[in-house]
Amino acid sequence: MPDSFKEILSRESVFVKRDVLSPHYIPGKLPHREKEIERVMRSVSPALEGGKPRNLFIYGKTGTGKTSTVKYVLNKLQEEESGKSAPISFINCRLYGSRYKVMQKIVQDHIPDFAKPGYGISFFYERLLDWIEKDGKQLIVVLDEVDMVKDLDDLLYTLTRSNDDLKKGGVSLLGISNRLNFKEKLDPRSMSSLLETEIVFSPYNSRELASILDARSKTGFAKGAVEESAINLASAIAAQETGDARYALKLLLRGGEIADERGERPVTDKHVEEARKSVDEGVATDAISTLPDHQQIVLYAISKLTLRGSRYSRLGNGDSDGENYLLSGEVYEDYVDSSKKFHKMPRSARWFRQYLNDLEMLGLITMVDSGKGQRGHTRFIKIAYSAEKVRDIVEKQLMGG
DNA sequence: CCTCCACAGGAAGCGCAGGAGT
DNA sequence: ACTCCTGCGCTTCCTGTGGAGG
């Protein structure tokens, strides 16, 4: 318990430059991505000499450094080529998820005068061609999370076709995606245009993660403020999950915050261990509060019944492990009641089943098929997180609003 | 053995909001 | 700015499934 604000302020933090630990920070050096950086540079380099870069496609799971690598290379490109012959549009397709929006964004980036809404695609297209031809520019369009574009075939067609319509200059594409299987849905023609070159980013292993964390903590943390074992644990946990560098960074950052809150000085693996709980809980809270209302209500019904105990408590005799499993029928009944409580019209039983499947996909509940000992064919449902917490989150979410 | 139970999940169709085209 | 179109969330209807009960 601090005696005064003065004490809190004078207390030394383990951080010296906190934002270095943030996942958005792009360090001056990207460890373990040297090969990838070189390949991206190689494919972009023709732009420096007025040539058309090859189209490039990058895959890799989240937190493997795809976006950072591309941003790093493009920053370098703009530094070395301070002229205006290789303009860049960096587009996050989660925000600009259609051909129209992407085209509009490109125009807005470079010729904002014409970016008013209401114009058709063909208008944007021709303005853009004029602008590129003017002094033979080499436009580079980066499509981050490219799988989020609804009419991707059309977009790719439009952009690659522009090279045929241009007398001078060119447009090249750089696509980034974390889903490997999405190209199956693509038109073979747009596939071959996008996949001229392909780079796969593999997940970091725990040693690589450790050296990344180590490098960042050297500038982010105060000297001696973080123990090596803490870094190793954070890397090991993240490597075990998916090799996600963002997750590893979060663990370390949160661990530092926890240590600060208690005024403890070196960040140890104990802090990281607790950070893991807190981070995972935060993820669950986020996942729940962004859920559609009715899925939240289903979760609410499940958590309520879990706390009260199943009405049909006769599970297979002797199966003492099966505590707190609920039947989908009784959950539906409570879901209908709970919907009324939150002033919502309950959905049909068919759609309720769909909700259950969605929630299972998100890892918020688990289900097993009813075996012996149960009349009829149903599923046993169990909540994956603390029932009290889930109930409170949903209540807060749906009551005040 | 057949029937019933208590569901699972596919198919078809419907109304609506928002995006595309004019 | 206006209409047309499409995708999405949802309902209704239906067939399937595996054990219980008679």
CATH C-level class of the largest domain is Alpha Beta
First-last Cα distance: 35 Å
Radius of gyration using CA atoms only: 26 Å
Uncertain residue segments:
314-322
Level of helix content?
Answer: 40-55%
**What value does the average pLDDT take?**
86
Task: Give the number of DSSP strands.
Answer: 8
**Strand order within the widest beta sheet:** 2-3-4-1-5
Largest sheet: 5 strands, parallel
The helix/strand series, from N terminus to C terminus, equals HHEHEHHEHEHEHHHHHEHHEEH
Q: Return the CATH architecture of the largest domain.
A: 3-Layer(aba) Sandwich
Strand content: 5-15%
Going by CATH, the homologous superfamily of the largest domain would be P-loop containing nucleotide triphosphate hydrolases
CATH fold topology of the largest domain: Rossmann fold
Shape: globular
Classification by helices and strands: alpha/beta
Q: Helix count, per DSSP?
A: 15
Would you spell out the secondary-structure blueprint of this structure?
Layout: H1 5-10, H2 34-44, E1 56-60, H3 66-80, E2 88-92, H4 99-110, H5 121-134, E3 138-144, H6 152-165, E4 170-177, H7 188-194, E5 197-201, H8 206-220, H9 228-241, H10 245-262, H11 269-289, H12 293-308, E6 326-327, H13 328-341, H14 349-361, E7 365-369, E8 379-383, H15 387-399
Parallel strand pairs: 1-4, 1-5, 2-3, 3-4
Antiparallel strand pairs: 6-8, 7-8
The protein binds a DNA duplex (22 and 22 nucleotides) through α14.
